[in-house]
Structures are given as structure tokens and as C-alpha cells.
Amino acid sequence: MEEKFDFTIDTLGPCTIQSPIKLSTAHGDYTANYVRDTSFVINDVNVFDTSKPIVLDSSNLMEKAGPREKIYFDPKHAKAGICTCGGLCPGLNDVIRAIVRCLNTRYGVKNIKGYRFGYHGFFAEEGYEPIELDRYLIDEIHKIGGTYLGTSRGGGQRVSEIVDCLERDGINMLFIIGGDGTQRGAYDIACEVEKRSMKCAVVGIPKTVDNDLMFIDRSFGFETAVQRAKETVAAVHMEAFSQINGIGLVKLMGREAGFIAAYAALSSHETNFCLIPEVPFEMEGENGFLASLERRLAKRGHAVIVVSEGAGQDLLASTGATDASGNKKLADIGLFLKTEIEKYFKAKNIEINLKYIDPSYQVRASVTTAADSVYCERLGNNAVHAAMAGKTKCVIGLVHDKFVHLPIKAVTAHRNAVDPEGALWRDCLDATGQPILMVNDMKKAQEKMAAAVAGAKSKPSEQKKK
């Protein structure tokens, strides 16, 4: 049975204050319009069975984001907080800058605190005093990578202490930039705020370079990551092409979803093997990866391999360890492939020249591309519009090229993944020319694939907070 979600957005109360942003309620007057709460985007627009009507209720209608004519908070008394959590991602500074500038220049909010180093910035004993932010202080930060506020993992489970800090500082709108674990922490914070009858809007800007968040078209930083990955693939291809039996091996981000690897393979036009977590492969045997690689070298004299960090984990010994976010620490598939490839061809007395590159941290710390910078600006602005209108327990996302409010509970219910039977992977196979499946036992491969899909769709209770 198809799972249903409720896209209803929680609010702190009725909006009675006229927005300081001067827009229009009419059409044809060359003035941008306010967005009404009755404006929606339909989630399920792919109708495969024409006998079924399009559903027009909270299970399929997503509230459109944007500035409202009436707002909940009086800008003169509003106090905002911002924090960034989890790993680095291109665009963090762009989002921070957009939030601060929109609060300052569009709404006239003067009190904005930047909490440093993620959730750890809320704990007094750690000594990270918040930064008083304004548009002049952050005006140039989009030109550098990383995050101006600093980041960290963990701490999201200390909900009561975080809300104590918000109460102490008089914060009535909190912007949390982070991935699915961070956003689950944001939801718990919003629930504790509600429990204490505090009037504080909690709005998330979802961040995951892996592009694995449910519903949204893409996460910010993803396009930049693909561009940087493409540049790496181009470099390693030149190395491989210039050598006798040259092999270029690139490991990219993608713990449970292979979107970056797939898009890098498609955009580079120079990738011959793309290995992702969603599609199992075997090393040995006639249909395995190593034999396929040997055939490629015999035919063309060089090969380029792109692998997601979470691919082939069933082939390696599990570390059993987790990071501060509760994420399982992955075994290094890149070094494993490098070792196994060298061993295989040495045993066959075939000369190879292998170059291995892992650009992950360089990619994460990159300055955004133009398209990502625009996206981050609009995400930050829409987050501010949502908070000023008293929206809470929500994140801002792009769905069917429209900005919408999404309940945190819906977005974090599962993780998105590449569909091995979908159009994206089909096109990736066309681009690489690799075998559809590099396995010798189809039944075992199907079992692995089913397990990978089930893992990608794990429930929130099975994922720890960042």
C-alpha cells in the first residue's frame, strides 16, 4: 500500500501584523504579489492510472512558500537565531547571508544571533559565545567555502538545554541548517518549545550534499558538488588516457545514495564504470567487476571508475563504529578497489597505471556555482518569510521548481535514493557502457538490492540525531 503523508504546516497563531514588505494583491500592476496560504503545489503530478482522480487534500498539496501580506511577528520585537550543523556543504555561507540580509533589510529585524559550531553553540559550558549578526558583517561570506558560524556533529539530543538557551536569549525564530538528522533534532526542539508554550518558530533549511532528502527536487550544494566531481573525473581521465592501461579511480560522496556519482558520470561523458550503493556488484567471476574492467582495458586501453563512498560495503569488513551524528562509519571502498585492482592485474602479469583521487573534502568546502548560489539565496529568503508568518516545524524545499513549506516529519520519514530501475540509472548505464549488473548470482543480487532499498527507506526512529 502506498504511504501517505500529511503536508499540513503548523503555525504559531493567526497573522495580524501588516508586513513591512510592500507587495501587491492584484495582477497586472507590475508589482510582485504576496503569497496566500491557499496557494499550493501538487506533489504527485505523475498520473499513471487515468481512472484515478488527482487528490487535492493535505496528503498531496504542499503549501507554497513566499512573503505573506500579514505576518505573525512584529519585526521591532523579533529576535532570530541561526545555526549550521553536520558536515560541510557548498552554500552554507550563502544561506546564512540570505537569512540575515532578508531579516535586516526586508523586515527590519535587528537582533540576530549566530550560534557557533552547530548545536554545541547552545551549551553555555562549552564557551562558544554567539555572534551578533547583521548584513554588513556577513556581506562577503558567500565568496568563501565552509560556514562562517562553524559546525559540528552531535548535541541534537540535548533538546531541553537548547530550548533553555533560546528562552534565555529571548529567541522567537530559529533557523537550523542541516541534514535529516539535524532536522529531526529541529523537530524535537520545536516540540519542546510548544510544550513550554513559547512562541518560537523553528524553520529548517535542509542540507545534504548527497541529495537524499525526500520530496525536494535537489538539495543545495548538490550542483556544485557535481561540478567539482566532474572536474576531478576530467583530470583522472586525462591521466588514464595518457598511460599504458591507465585506470582512473575517483571516490565521491554518497553514503546511501549515489546521486553525485551518477550525475558526475552523466556529465563527464568520460566515466566507464559507476558504482553506487543502490546497485550491488561482485569483484570476482566472469560477470564481476574485475573481469569487466579487464575487458574494457583490452578494448580501449584505459578506464575511468567513479564510486560512491557507500558502494560495495557488503564486500568489506564493517568497522562497527559510528560518528557523533550516529552515522555508521563506512569502510573505505576506494582504497579497497585500488588494492583489489592492482592485485588482480599483477596476478595476471598485466601492466596497469592506476591513479586514485578522493576529492571529498575539497568538494565539500567549495564555493558555490552560480546556480547553487541563486538557489541558496532563495531558500534563505523563503525561510525568513515562513518564520515571520509564524510557520514552524517545517523546512523550505523546491518541489516541481516551486518553493514550498514541508513538514519536517515528512521530509525526514525516509531517505531518497537512486532507483536502479528508473530513468536516471538507465541513462547512466547508457553513458558509461558498463554491464547492467556485474554479478554472477542474480538471486543474490536481487536480495542485496532489496536490502539496499529497505535501508534507504529506514524510519526516523532508526536514525540518530545529528
Overview of this protein structure:
- This protein is α/β, with parallel strands linked by helices and 466 residues long.
- The protein is built from twelve helices and 17 strands.
- Strands 8-7-6-9-10-16-17 form a seven-stranded mixed β-sheet, with helices on both faces. Strands 12-13-11-14 form a four-stranded parallel β-sheet, sandwiched between helices.
- A hairpin with a 2-residue loop joins strand 16 and strand 17.
- Helix 2 packs across helix 3, helix 4 crosses helix 5 and helix 5 crosses helix 11.
- The C terminus is likely disordered.
Chain-wise SSE layout:
Blueprint: E1 10-11, E2 17-18, E3 40-42, E4 61-63, E5 70-71, E6 79-84, H1 92-107, E7 111-114, E8 131-132, H2 159-169, E9 173-178, H3 180-195, E10 201-206, H4 222-241, E11 246-252, H5 259-268, E12 273-275, H6 289-300, E13 302-308, H7 333-347, E14 353-357, H8 360-364, H9 370-388, E15 391-392, E16 394-399, E17 402-407, H10 408-411, H11 423-432, H12 442-456
Parallel strand pairs: 6-7, 6-9, 9-10, 10-16, 11-13, 11-14, 12-13
Antiparallel strand pairs: 1-15, 2-5, 3-4, 7-8, 16-17
Helix pairs in contact: 1-9, 2-3, 4-5, 5-11
Radius of gyration: 24 Å
Overall residue-averaged pLDDT value: 91
Largest sheet properties: 7 strands, mixed
Report how far apart the termini are: 31 Å
- Counted by DSSP, the helix tally is 12
Count of β-strands: 17
Strand content: 15-25%
Helix content: 25-40%
Strand order in the sheet with the most strands: 8-7-6-9-10-16-17
| Structural class by sheet pairing and helices | alpha/beta
Shape: elongated
Order of helices and strands: EEEEEEHEEHEHEHEHEHEHEHHEEEHHH
Low-pLDDT ranges: 459-466
